[in-house]
Amino acid sequence: MERLQKVMAQAGVASRRKSEELITTGHVQVNGEVVKELGTKVDQNDAIQVDGASIMRENYVYYLLYKPRGVVSTAHDDKGRKTVVDLLQDVDERIYPVGRLDYDTSGLLLMTNDGTLANQLMHPKYKIDKTYVAKVKGIPTNEALEQLRHGLLVDGHKTAPAKTKVISTEHRRNTAIVQLTIHEGHNHQVKNMLAAIGVPVEKLRRDSYGPLTLDGMTSGDYRELKPAELATLREAIAQQGTNKRSRTRSHHRSK
């Protein structure tokens, strides 16, 4: 469900502010009824008309992109750099990335025009796991990894406990490959966490986002999500929402 004025703006009717004016002045109908409330929410099954004309709404699409390094995770870039949207040249819908990966970070990025799903995935309360693989300078000790597993202070913020393990080490070059799974999304979080334990990141890739993985893909590849993948992703969101409500009820009972 999305707010009516947002759907109108996405359909190109008018800016969101102008769409709000059209709603409050009685120009908009939903399923044949005039709607003047700005809080009204609609879904894909609702018929929307503005001054008697039906608006054309985009179908929701979902793409999984293996973002290469050297590409920005935005729809537009004022520096003229290549964006993730540029990579999906045969997609007609206006899509955008869910969250972001740094310019020099590669890996899994979900692209969609489904604002509701995007907001749920990025909202901290849903705690969707994201797994990264990093090549780091130095070889982390188990004591250092324990700091990540219990949470540590980074830029004044204590991180949530992370799952982590060392995949391989190269003692001659003093480097290691480390896997890190987190559900938070603070700016440069993985790089900052690893730097905080003394092993700065040299290369970073995101391998999974919730149940989605890069299996069978190479850098620059993209494909539509399969219906089963989308269903599994929605189930993960719903499960986290249920867990959140259960924790809240338990907290209130314990007071």
Automatic annotation (TrEMBL):
<dbReference type="Pfam" id="PF01479">
    <property type="entry name" value="S4"/>
</dbReference>
<feature type="domain" description="RNA-binding S4">
    <location>
        <begin position="2"/>
        <end position="61"/>
    </location>
</feature>
<dbReference type="GO" id="GO:0005829">
    <property type="term" value="C:cytosol"/>
</dbReference>
<dbReference type="InterPro" id="IPR020094">
    <property type="entry name" value="TruA/RsuA/RluB/E/F_N"/>
</dbReference>
<dbReference type="InterPro" id="IPR050343">
    <property type="entry name" value="RsuA_PseudoU_synthase"/>
</dbReference>
<dbReference type="InterPro" id="IPR020103">
    <property type="entry name" value="PsdUridine_synth_cat_dom_sf"/>
</dbReference>
<dbReference type="InterPro" id="IPR002942">
    <property type="entry name" value="S4_RNA-bd"/>
</dbReference>
<keyword id="KW-0413">Isomerase</keyword>
<dbReference type="GO" id="GO:0120159">
    <property type="term" value="F:rRNA pseudouridine synthase activity"/>
</dbReference>
<dbReference type="InterPro" id="IPR000748">
    <property type="entry name" value="PsdUridine_synth_RsuA/RluB/E/F"/>
</dbReference>
<dbReference type="InterPro" id="IPR036986">
    <property type="entry name" value="S4_RNA-bd_sf"/>
</dbReference>
<keyword id="KW-0694">RNA-binding</keyword>
<dbReference type="GO" id="GO:0000455">
    <property type="term" value="P:enzyme-directed rRNA pseudouridine synthesis"/>
</dbReference>
<dbReference type="InterPro" id="IPR042092">
    <property type="entry name" value="PsdUridine_s_RsuA/RluB/E/F_cat"/>
</dbReference>
<dbReference type="Pfam" id="PF00849">
    <property type="entry name" value="PseudoU_synth_2"/>
</dbReference>
<dbReference type="InterPro" id="IPR006145">
    <property type="entry name" value="PsdUridine_synth_RsuA/RluA"/>
</dbReference>
<dbReference type="InterPro" id="IPR018496">
    <property type="entry name" value="PsdUridine_synth_RsuA/RluB_CS"/>
</dbReference>
<protein>
    <recommendedName>
        <fullName>Pseudouridine synthase</fullName>
        <ecNumber>5.4.99.-</ecNumber>
    </recommendedName>
</protein>
<dbReference type="GO" id="GO:0003723">
    <property type="term" value="F:RNA binding"/>
</dbReference>
<comment type="similarity">
    <text>Belongs to the pseudouridine synthase RsuA family.</text>
</comment>
